[in-house]
Write a structure and sequence with these properties.
The protein is built from 4 helices and 2 strands. The chain is mostly helical. A two-stranded antiparallel sheet has the order 1-2. The longest helix has 35 residues. It starts with a helix and ends with a helix.
Length: 135
């Protein structure tokens, strides 16, 4: 089997195609969530905290050189806060999406079937019915 035919067989398997579609949709979904966080939630959070812009928050570990050739060394914890909020929103959105998909894929439960009565009960029922017929 040639490399090309092996690769074609591998690439056309259902799981690989599903994974590719998932990655593409996930990338687009990531852009939407990033915009949601950056353009909607972060300004509201900044407004609630008195106009603080999280992405600009940083601790300067080393100042830039006077001639500007060496940039400052920053500990940008504000970007970390923003990326953490991004992650939480993405995780929550995926959770809601999986929950909705599971609700649609739930198969209806089969009605509960009562187990057959024990043999003694069946025998007693027959005896009762025979006694009713004689009377």
């Amino acid at each position: 089997m040639s490399i090309v035919s092996e690769f074609k067989e591998f690439a056309m398997k259902g799981n690989v195609v599903d994974l590719a579609v998932g990655v593409i949709i996930g990338g687009a979904f990531g852009k939407i969530v990033t915009s949601l966080v950056g353009d909607i939630f972060m300004p509201l959070l900044g407004l609630a905290t008195g106009g603080i812009n999280f992405s600009d928050m940083a601790i300067t570990l080393k100042e830039a050189s006077a001639d500007g050739k060496v940039p400052a060394v920053l500990l940008a914890y504000g970007k970390f806060i923003q990326n953490s909020i991004d992650f939480l929103i993405v995780a929550f959105a995926i959770f809601l999406m999986v929950k909705a998909i599971n609700r649609f894929n739930k198969k209806p439960e089969a009605p509960a079937v009562a187990p057959p009565p024990p043999a003694e009960e069946v025998l007693l029922t027959e005896i009762r019915d025979l006694l009713k017929q004689k009377a």
